[in-house]
Specification:
It contains 13 helices and 11 strands. It has about 450 residues and is of the alpha+beta class. The chain has a 5-stranded mixed β-sheet with strand order 3-2-11-8-9.
Length: about 450
């Protein structure tokens, strides 16, 4: 049956077109790439929101005094499908989300809303993207959803994520990896998670054309990282899936650690949660016993501990919540509600969160714990800026703003200076993205074996 929403949407389009009947459109599929674009003085921001937990931000440079909204999108490096119509080009899909070119409005009342940030809130454009003129500093937004649906996250929050990403790129070593004094797989995987949250490809993430990409580094070093534990395999899978990275030769997946007799990927909650997230990222089914096992590791305080005997902490609890929700557990399930209550008990008056609210070593807020908590809040569909998640009138977003430096990096705690891990882990949180960031099967890397000659 044709729904009332679809009927109203059809009437809306009919009115906007002045009663015209749309002829069969001339279709066009556009792939834009800015990697080799010449330097330009002006730039605009393009934000794309695919769902309430999936969005990205790009900057588009241009040398002219203005650029149309459509050209900004087409030059963002994203895959965009458009259709020619009597009122101009219509955007059918972005990065595969939306409708095919020959049925641009297949979503009925769900379509690509075209918006802009007015300095305070997102507003709808009064004209189409092909006839909207943007100037330097403008902020455009594209939101897949119904008219008047859930708004895009506030732009200042997304801009903070972008600045952190630019700082992160500048920390990349010449071999494509991350870490100091030399690259380490653990730090490089954290960067995979950060760039994957913003839909960047591993093959394209490099400082400049003369340096190696993070793809090259992970092909050489990722396999050993997955062999250390189920948590390593899970974390790598989340990063690989979201950055379109292939699986290195002999790399292990979370499934390689699973014991069907016990429901364990690993005896402890932290690795179990990462293994579940990695399994989801690889588009594989998480066994029900694995979910039950993780639920049963919840402590009487409501939280989870990384390893047996460590006591509950916000980081592991946030990971467990993301894993359980991703595996299909309802956010209203008592075990998740108890976990959220434990997390809430760890919030300080600066809006941030501590690692362990009962620690004798100190309970000051830190960026890493705050970032993980934000991801859990987004995972259960709650608003971290709502009154329920405020202390002293401050939110977790406010706290991250206080520890972000002018160069885009974040401190672990105030006045401690730039911290690589804090910056890496804050990026997905600022983007409002709980793990896993993408769900897709990951192919093995193609390798060539050269013959050896012995005498």
């Amino acid at each position: 049956m044709y729904s009332r929403k679809n009927f109203l949407f059809t009437i809306l389009i009919f009115v906007l077109l002045g009663g015209m009947i749309i002829p069969a459109p001339l279709f066009q599929v556009v792939r834009a790439a800015m990697d080799n674009a010449p330097a330009a003085d002006n730039s605009v921001s393009v934000v794309v929101q695919f769902s309430t937990t999936d969005r990205l931000i790009r900057k588009v440079s241009f040398s002219s005094s203005t650029i149309t909204g459509l050209d900004a999108l087409l030059n963002s490096g994203l895959e965009v499908v458009t259709a020619d119509t009597p009122w101009g080009k219509a955007v059918c899909s972005i990065e595969g989300v939306g409708c095919p070119a020959d049925d641009c409005f297949c979503g009925g009342s769900t379509f690509w809303n075209y918006e802009f940030w007015d300095g305070t809130a997102w507003q709808g454009h009064s004209s189409g993207a092909s006839s909207t003129t943007l100037t330097d500093g403008a902020v455009d937004g594209w939101r897949w959803g119904e008219w008047g649906g859930q708004s895009i996250l506030p732009y200042p929050q997304l801009e903070r994520a972008w600045k952190a990403l630019q700082w992160l790129k500048n920390q990349q070593n010449s071999d494509g990896g991350y870490g100091s004094p030399s690259s380490a797989a653990s730090s490089s995987v954290e960067s995979l998670l950060a760039i994957g949250a913003n839909h960047h490809k591993a093959s394209e993430w490099r400082q400049n054309i003369s340096t190696a990409s993070i793809l090259g580094y992970m092909m050489a070093n990722g396999s050993n990282f997955t062999k250390n534990s189920a948590s390593g395999a899970g974390k790598f899978a989340v990063g690989a899936s979201s950055t379109q990275l292939c699986f290195p030769f002999q790399a292990r997946s979370p499934a390689d650690y699973y014991d069907p007799a016990t429901g364990k990927y690993h005896p402890d909650a932290g690795p179990q949660a990462w293994a579940i997230l990695g399994t989801l990222a690889l588009s594989q089914t998480v066994p029900a016993d694995a979910v039950t096992y993780l639920k049963n590791l919840s402590l009487p305080t409501g939280g989870w501990e990384w390893s047996d005997g460590w006591t509950a902490d916000t980081n592991t609890t946030a990971l467990a919540i993301q894993a359980l929700v991703g595996a299909g557990v309802d956010p209203g399930d008592p075990v998740i509600v108890s976990g959220l209550n434990f997390i809430k008990s760890a919030q300080n008056n600066d809006g941030g969160f501590t690692y362990d609210p009962d620690s004798t070593w100190g309970t000051a807020s830190d960026a890493n714990s705050t970032a993980y908590v934000l991801q859990a809040i987004y995972a259960v569909g709650q608003d971290p800026t709502s009154a329920a998640w405020q202390e002293g009138g401050k939110t977790a977003i406010d706290f991250l703003a206080t520890v972000q430096l002018a160069d885009g990096s974040l401190e672990w705690q105030p006045s401690l200076g730039s911290n690589l891990l804090a910056t890496q882990q804050a990026i997905p949180a600022l983007l409002g993205r709980p793990a896993p960031f993408a769900i897709r099967a990951v192919e093995a890397c193609k390798v060539s074996f050269l013959p050896t000659i012995s005498r």
